[in-house]
Structures are given as C-alpha cells and as structure tokens.
Amino acid sequence: MISIHSPYGFLRENIAKAVEFRDSPFRYFLTKRCLNLDIEREILEWFETDAPWRLVETDFYEQYEFSMLDAALPQNLSRFASPDYLQALRNAIATIFDISLDDRVALLAHKLIPGQRIAIHNDYLGGDETHRLTVQLNRGLSDEDGGLFLLFNSFDSNDIHRILRPVSGSGIGFEIGNNSNHAVSRLHCGERYTLVYSFYALRRAE
Fold it and tell me: Which residues in the chain show pLDDT less than 50?
C-alpha cells in the first residue's frame, strides 16, 4: 500500500482530516490542501503541455476534459492510476461518508479557459455515480478571474448556499443526489483545472 507520507498518500491523509463537513443542503466536506506542492506542480506542467485535452460541449457546459485512467500518464504521475492508490482514496471517502463503496473509481481531468463556465446542475443520474471528489488546480487564480465553485440550496441559481474560491490544491467532496446543485462561474482569465474523482455506493441486492 502507498504510505500516507508519500506525495500521493498526502491526498488520502488530508481527505481523512477534512477541515469541514456539512449535511445541508446536501452532504459535503471541504479540505484546504489535497496534494503535495511538488506533485501539484508536476500535474499542472503536464496539463499545460502534453495532456490529451478534448473539447466537450453539452447543454449546460463547455470545457476540455479527458479520462486520466485511460490516458498515457507521465511516469512521475502514473501512480495516480494505480489500483493501490485508488483503493486507498476510495477507503478514505467511504470513511468520511460512513458508507460502503464498490470497486469502481473514475478520474477525469477538466479544464476551463476564459469565457467558459459550468451552469447549475446536480450530477444525479440515478444508479450511476453516488459520490464525488473535486480537487482544484491552477496557477493562482484570484476571485476576479472567476471560476468560483458555487453551491446552491435549490435549483434556483439565485439561491446560493456557498461560494468557494478557486484556491489551488483545495478540494470538495460531496454526495450526489437530486439536491446536490452546484456550478462554476464564468472564467475571465487564466486556466482552471480540476481532478474529478467519482465513486459508487455498494448497492444491496434486490
């Protein structure tokens, strides 16, 4: 297993010490730093140069993305896709939410450039992902640059519960449901990257 003292284990250790947990308007936690600074820098350098970004457009967002589990990762980042690392991370999420998760983990990388945003949505598809962890990565975005992570009390875009600043290395984990409404405000300057981990609750047999 990966040591919690390794750069990769740093994410697991800090998630297990989530700085804040809330039950309303949906279950979520916040943590101030998810990654070792050296690893964060290496990910950003790859994202900015050789990562295989592809543009994806839907009815509520336009962004660049790719699966990190399907991509040819640089050697120094390959352990992000290792079974041991993903299992340790899955165990940390299961502990925080006091649930059982199955073996599946998805990991997508997202990128927003100026002019792009993600409108209000809840990620709820019914029978698909049940929990998510999003880790922000950027070169020091300010509030004026946009890319703010917005949490809502309802599907009304004016009914804002909380605004999270685009602090690189910070993370939010949440339980996906029909009330897990969130969005990302329009980016005005710079590039906003995220690591998006998806987890699946273990469902009882019918």
Answer: 1-5, 205-206
pLDDT of residue 12: 65
Domain limits of the chain?
9-201
pLDDT at 126: 75
The answer to whether the beta carbons of residues 77 and 46 sit under 8 Å apart is yes
The span from the CA of 66 to the CA of 193, in Å, is 12
Which class for 106: exposed (0-12), middle (13-18), buried (19 or more C-beta within 10 A)?
middle
pLDDT of residue 6: 54
Of residues 43, 90, 40, 53, the one with CA closest to residue 198:
90
Quote the pLDDT of residue 197. Answer: 95
Query: In the CATH hierarchy, which fold is given to the domain comprising 9-201?
Result: Jelly Rolls (2.60.120)
Q: What is the largest CA-CA distance in the chain?
A: 50
Q: How far apart are CA 131 and CA 14, in angstroms?
A: 17
> What are the backbone dihedrals phi and psi of residue 41, each rounded to the nearest 5 degrees, phi first?
-65, -40
Please report, for residues 182, 187, 193, the alpha-carbon distance to residue 53 in angstroms, rounded to integers and kept in the order given: 23, 18, 11
What angle in degrees, to the nearest 10, is found between the helix axes of 9-16 and 83-97? 0
Q: Return the pLDDT at 7.
A: 53
Complete edge-to-edge strand list for the sheet that includes strand 62-67: 20-22, 28-31, 171-175, 131-137, 192-201, 101-112, 62-67, 54-57
Give the integer Cα–Cα distance in Å for 98 and 91: 10
